[in-house]
Each structure stands twice: as structure tokens, then as C-alpha cells.
Amino acid sequence: MSFYEKLNAAIARNRSLLVVALDPNPEMMPRGDRADDPIAADKLVTSLKDWMAFVIGATSDRVCAYKPTLGFYQALGTAGLELLFQVLEMIPDSIPVILDAKHGDLNTSSVLAKTVFEEWQVDGITLNPYAGQDLVAPFLMYPDKAVFLLCRTSNPAAVVLQEYPEPESPFYLQLVEEAKAWGTPEQLGFEVGTTTADVLTMVRSIAPERTILTRSIWGGGDMDEILGEVLKGGLNATGEGLLIPVPQDLLASENLAAEVDLLNQKIDRIRDRVSQENARCELWMPDVCILEKHPHQDLILQLFDIGCILFGDYVQASGETFTHYIDLRKIISNPQVFDRVLQAYGEILQELKFDRIAGIPYGSLPTATGLSLRLERPMIFPRKEVKAHGTRRAIEGGFVPGETVVVVEDILITGNSAMEGAAKLKSAGLVVEDIVVLLDRGEEVRNYLKDNGYRAHSVLSIFEVADTLLKSGRITPKQAEALCHE
Ligand SMILES: O=C(O)c1cc(=O)[nH]c(=O)n1[C@@H]1O[C@H](COP(=O)(O)O)[C@@H](O)[C@H]1O
């Protein structure tokens, strides 16, 4: 079972987004076991082990992941490493373990990946990505494991580096933007330490599909308020993708199980509320990305990440079988991407002269509706089939013959679907000259439309898509070839 599957299974089974840091930190031990107690001092490692056993026993049905911090075990010397193995043994197989190593040494990445994933059998690891993709790649060679990249920390001195060159376009967001191309959302997430939820909102806005491992959120203040802000800023569009630390001081509490239950209930309640609110307003939220330098490149990666570009054997509208399929209908289920797609169409439509927007059913009806509302222009659509009852209209919506209509379609492969729709409009006396799509198969299909009296406009060509996906490591050269030349 992959990290991602195991994590999601644990989240669902235990109804929890909570992660427990299994840190044998003598300073945080329950009072009676403290290292400064002269009786306990020489039995420190045993006491720490008992404490970790107690924490696991009290929480394994209540949390979705454990996160032992390697540094605390290393600090205890040889006995510490042995303690780590004992702690790993104690954790039930059904709960994923993220080793908090913050590993940052390029030269030892391959050997460490082998040791922690193959020998220690942990499911994920935190990495310090300052050395770039080369450091992370050896860990991503294990498709069932995950990495969390240190993105931001909450200590005040970090600001000069992490928010460089300016807080409005900080380096830590540049890191997210860059690292999204290194691995899939199932394999690569971000660790974000913050006491202000704005940071989570910004990371989430440019990484809608990634798992965010939060920390340092319990800076003080009302727990409900903190959770409200953190969940609002950090949850993804489906109300998931966020891991929350159990406050460290709770781990020394005798009532740990009850405290964690209470925290889960609070999160559950707030999560439900926030998910409903987010679902309501996200549709209208512009997807503002401060670091957006190549808008189409970013959009292409998002389209891939939400599963619009599929590989396998697929029969096309033309009857041919290709080894890929472009399923742009998924866009409507991701309001953030949908909003961005509408924006891109809108930029093209603003340059054109037309009276009405027509969508080609079914795939392009949501797009035409969104554009109609966004640009405040009336919409119509040609029916796929005319009903044998009711008005028996071939075209739905109001129009006057002689008006100019811009046709909106999702994709031009041969171009026939778009032209068939346009022909229906023309046969009702409307003028159709422009056809606007999100994606086309390049100059050939655009020229075909031109030969038939239409101007084709597209946001993206399949060649740009293939090139970007290939460069970002999302697809293989063979898959890029299939996209471009099938
Ligand atoms: O069926 C297809 O050919 C097809 C392949 C593909 O990868 N993606 C895709 O969306 N389609 C469908 O093909 C239509 C456009 O194909 P053409 O009529 O050949 O331009 C779209 O409206 C889809 O219904």
C-alpha cells in the first residue's frame, strides 16, 4: 500500500487529520519521568521508551500518522537509534510513519533513501530542499513512499531568507512552485510551519493538490479560532490534504486519549463548516498566484495533476484508437482550475466581436455558462438532438437571426464536433466566424477550420502541453510523442 493510500485509509478509519510527533525529548517528558529527576536519570532511555509506548497506545486509533524526529533519537547516541527502531516496531502497520529527518545533504540522499525506505520501512520523510531536485530525486525513486519538503518555518530569523526578496513574492512560495514539477501530489507534499494561517492560504493557492504537513500552529490563543483559520486556509477543495500536529504538551497528559478525541471532534466540526464555506465561495475566488510567471505552463501542470491527461487505449470520436485521452470535463470539479480556465478563454473572447456565446453540448456547456456570466454576454446552445416534444427547438436560448455568435468548445481534434455545432447555429440564420477552444492539435486543425470559413483560437496547443509535461518530468518522451503525433 502506498503512503498516500495508507494515509487516506488512516484518515478515514480514525476520522482524524492529526499527526503525533514521536519525539523522545527529555524536556517534554511527563513530570514524574523527567531526566532531572535523579532516580530516573540513569534510566532515561527506558523512561523515554515507556513514554513513547504510552503515546502510541493512547493514539493509534485516533491519529492518521506518526512523525518521529530523527534528531531527538540521534541526540541519545547509539541507544537513541535503537530506541527509534523499537518505536517503529511499536507503531501499527496501518498508520503511516513520516520520519522527520529534514535531510539536506545531496551526497547521502541515495543511501539514506535506501536505508529509511527499505530497511527502516518508514512511509515518508521530510527533506530540506535547499539543494534542489537532485537531493529529492533519490527519494522519489520509491513510488510508494512520500517526501515532505520543508517549505517554511515559524522562527522569526527565518523571515530574511524565506521571505526573500519581499513578503509579497517570498522564496518559500517560489520553492513550492518549482517543486511541484518534481513529483506527483501523491508523492510530494510540503511541511509548513506557521503561526499565521495566511501562509497556508498562499501555499494552498498555488499547490491545490498537495498534502500540507503543518507545524507550529499552536502559537497561543483560542484553539477553536486557530483551527478555524488553519483549516480554512489549508484544506484543499475537497476538504482534505492537511495534516495537523497534536500539541506537544498534550503528549505528557495522562488523559491523552480523551484530549485527542476532543481535538478530533473539534477539527471534524470545523472541517465540515469550512468545507461547506469553501465550496460556496471558491467558485468565485480568482486564483491569484503571486509567483505566476508562466500562466499557461502552470495551468498545464494543474490540468495534468487533476487527471485531464490520461494514458491507455482510448477510442476517439473519429473511431481511431489512441494511447491517450484528453478529458477536459474534469475541470468543472475543481473550481480553482475551472476559474483559471475561464479566465484564459475570457482573455481571448475579449478580443472578439460577437453578440452571443454558444457552447457545444455537453462538454462545453459549463464553460459557456461561466463565460456568459463572467463577461455578461448572453448564451445559447445548439441541441445535440432535437426533442420530439415540447418546443422542439434545435437551439436553446433567445437569439435573433443575423446575430454573430462565438462558439466555445473544449478541444479540437479533427475539429468536426465544433464545426457541426457551428453549422447548426448557421442553419438558424446566425453568423459564426470564431471558434474558441482550450486545447487544439496545432496548426493542421486550425487550417482545416480556416478552409471551412472559421477562425480557430486556442488557449493551448497539444505541443505546448506535451513539451511542458515532458520538461517537468510528468510524462515520458514516449508519452509526449503519443500526445503530439497520434
Ligand atoms: O473522442 C475524441 O476523439 C476525444 C478525444 C480526446 O482525447 N478528448 C476528447 O475530448 N475527445 C472528444 O472529441 C471531441 C472533439 O473531437 P473532434 O470532433 O475530432 O475535434 C470532444 O468534444 C470530445 O468529446
From TrEMBL:
Keywords: Coiled coil, Decarboxylase, Glycosyltransferase, Lyase, Magnesium, Pyrimidine biosynthesis, Transferase
UniProt-annotated binding residues for orotate: 441
Cofactor(s) in the UniProt record: Mg(2+)
Alphabetical list of InterPro entries matching this protein: Aldolase_TIM (IPR013785), OMPdecase_type-2 (IPR011995), OMPdeCOase_dom (IPR001754), OPRT (IPR023031), Or_phspho_trans_dom (IPR004467), PRTase-like (IPR029057), PRTase_dom (IPR000836), RibuloseP-bd_barrel (IPR011060)
Coiled-coil residue spans: 253-280
Annotated metabolic or biological route of this protein: Pyrimidine metabolism; UMP biosynthesis via de novo pathway; UMP from orotate: step 1/2; Pyrimidine metabolism; UMP biosynthesis via de novo pathway; UMP from orotate: step 2/2
Binding site for 5-phospho-alpha-D-ribose 1-diphosphate: 383-384, 387, 389, 409-417
Keyword hit for Transferase: yes
Catalytic activities: orotidine 5'-phosphate + diphosphate = orotate + 5-phospho-alpha-D-ribose 1-diphosphate; orotidine 5'-phosphate + H(+) = UMP + CO2
Biological-process GO terms, alphabetical: 'de novo' pyrimidine nucleobase biosynthetic process; 'de novo' UMP biosynthetic process
Protein name from the UniProt record: Orotate phosphoribosyltransferase
Species of origin: Zarconia navalis LEGE 11467
Gene (name only): pyrE
